[in-house]
Amino acid sequence: MKHLLCCLVAVQLAACAPMMSLRSGAVPSPSVADTLLVVDLEAERALDDAVLAARWRLLRALDEQAMGRFDPARLELDGAYHLLAAMDDAPSLDESRAELRQAEADAVADAVERAYMSVLPHIERLSPDSPLTLLLRELGEEHLDQLPQDKVPLVRIHQVSPGCDLPIDANERVAASIHFFQTRGRETWTAWMRRSGRYRNIILPVLREEKLPEDLLFLSMIESGFNPRAYSRARAVGLWQFMASTGRLEGLTIDHWIDERRDPVKSTRAAARHLRRLYKRFGDWRLAAAAYNSGPGRVQRAIDKAGSRDFWDLDLPRETRNYVPLLMAAAVIAQSPETFGFTLPEPEAPILWEEVHLKRFVHLETASRLVGPGTDLKHLNPELRRPITPPMAKSYRLKVPPGTGRDLLASLAELPASDQPGVYEYSVQRGDNLWTIGRAFGVSSTMIAEANGVRNGLIRPGQTLFIPVQGGRPPADGLVHTVRNGESLWTIARRFGTSVADLKRWNGLTQSIIRPDQKLTVGSRPTQLVTANRRVTTTDSQGRMTHVVRGGESLWTISRQYEVKLDDLRVWNGLANDLIKPGQQLIVSGVDESISIYTVVRGDTLYSIARKFGLDANDIARQNNMSLTSTLLTGMELRIRTAIE
Length: 645
Known about the structure:
Elements: H1 4-9, H2 41-66, H3 70-86, H4 98-119, H5 131-137, H6 141-144, H7 152-160, H8 172-182, H9 186-209, H10 217-224, H11 244-249, H12 264-282, H13 285-294, H14 296-306, H15 318-335, E1 354-358, H16 364-371, H17 377-380, E2 396-400, H18 405-413, E3 421-427, H19 434-441, H20 445-452, E4 464-470, E5 479-482, H21 489-495, H22 500-506, E6 519-522, E7 529-530, E8 536-539, E9 545-548, H23 555-562, H24 566-573, E10 585-587, E11 593-599, H25 606-613, H26 617-623, E12 637-643
C-alpha cells in the first residue's frame, strides 16, 4: 500500500523523468542515446534542491517535536509537504532516472507522513488549507491503531471538525466532553438530538438569516436541552436561557402575564442578536460563547488578567470552562455521529402552528376545548405564564394547530357569557389566604395560585393578586332566595359563598339592580362565610351583616375591616363603650346603607367614578381592596357604598 502522503503529493511522479540521487556529487553527461531528449539540467538541479530542502524541513520538524513545540513542528512539515507537492509541476526528466528520483521523493514523503501522525494528536487547531486536512480524509482505522489509545479521539476530532462551521479545538477538554456524551451523557445526548427536531425549523432559518454559524443550534442544546420551559437556579429561562435583564435588553417582554424568553421564535431572534453582538465585540466564537454563558464583562476581565485572547488560557468560572468544550463536543458529534459511536435518533416532528389575533383575552382551557379534544395550547404557547392570555393586551397572537384558527375565532364569537373570563385585581389583606380569597370570588385557590405564580400558597399583605373568574351554570341544587330590604347582589353573594358575577349569570341579570321580594337563584345554603378578609359574617332578619368577635379583635380593628365608623358600630350595637369579647355578635352594617355594584366602562378611572357618585376615590379603592393606581378593566364590577336618602 502506498503511503498516504505519497498519494496526496507524489502520485504523478512515476510519470516524471528520473531523479538524481542526493548522494551523487556529479551530474552525468548526456549519452548519445539521450540526444533525442531535451534535458534541462537546471530543472533537474532545482528538483534535487527541493528534495533536499524538504529533508531539512523534516529534520527541523523533528527537532521542534522533540522539544514539545508541536505547532512549529507542524509548520515545518507543512513546508516540506508543499515542496514535495511543487515537484508535481516540474518538467519531464530523463526516464532513465525516474526510479531513483521517485525513491527519493517517496522516502521523504513517508517520513513526513509519519511525523505528521506523531504531531497530530498535539495540535488543537488546523487551518482550512493545512495539508493535514487532506491527510485526515484518507486516514483509515489501521493508522489510528498505531496511535496511543488516548490520542485517537483527538485525531477523530480533527477528521470531523472541517465539516463544522464553529471553530473546534482538538484537545483533552473537548475529548473529555465527547467521552462524557459517549458514557454517562449518552442518553442525554440522544434525547436532546431527538427533541431538536421540534425546533430546528425555527432556529436554523433565523441563524441563516442573521448570517451566523448554524452550529450555534447546539448552544441551545447545551443551554436548555431544547426545552423552552427550562428554568435554572440562576433564574435563566427558555431555550436560550436568558436572564431577565439580558432578555429585556434584547427586546423580550417579561411581565406578570407573559415571558417571551419561553417563546421559541422570539427568544431565538433575541439570542441571534445577542450572539452577533458578542462576536462583534470579541471577534472569536469561543470567546463569544463564553461571554454568552458568563457575561461579556467577566470574559473581558479574564482576557485583561491573562494578557491573552485564547479561551483556553483564561481564568473563567468552572461552568464556563466546561461550557465551551461541551458546545464543541455536541457540534462535532452531530456532524458525524457514527465516528463517535452514536446512532442518530429519529427526530421528533417539528412544531407547527398558525396564529390567530385575539381581540380579547380567553382562558386557555376554554380555547383548547373549542379547538378540539386533546389540544394543549399551553404547549404551543409556552410564553404564557398564566392560564389566560394577557387581559391588558388589545390584541394577542395565540398559536393554535394549523387549520384551526378560523374555527376557533368563530367559536369564541359565539361563546356564551357564562364561559367568558374576567379578571379582578385584589390587594391581599392581613390574615388572607388563597382559600378564603377563592371563596370570596367564587373560584378555586388553585386557579388563583396558577394565575399569579404563587408557590406553596404563600402570599403577603399588600400583594396584588389577579383573580380570573369564569362563569358557569347554576348548581343543580341551587336554592331560591327572596331579596330583602337593604340587600344587594354583593351582600347576597357573600352570604351564600358565591360571586356577584355568578349571581348575575344564574339569574340572567344585565345590571346589578335588584328589588325587595325579587326571587334569585343562589348557589348553596347560607352558611357562616369566611371572606377574603377572614371576617366571620352572616346576616340577620333585617338584612344587616353581623360579625362574630374573635380573640384579639377590638372594635377599632373591626371598624377598619368593614370600613365603617366606630360611632356607627356603637349605635348599631347599643354599646356604651368599646369593650367587646370573643364570641360576641356585632352588627356591622345598617339598614340605612346600601351597596350598589358599578360595572366599569371604557375610559373609567377611580376618580371619574368617584365624581359620578359624589364620593372620594380613596373610599372606593378601600371598599374594593385595591390601590388608587390599580388598572380598571372594562367589565370589572366595583362595590359602591352610598347612603339611602
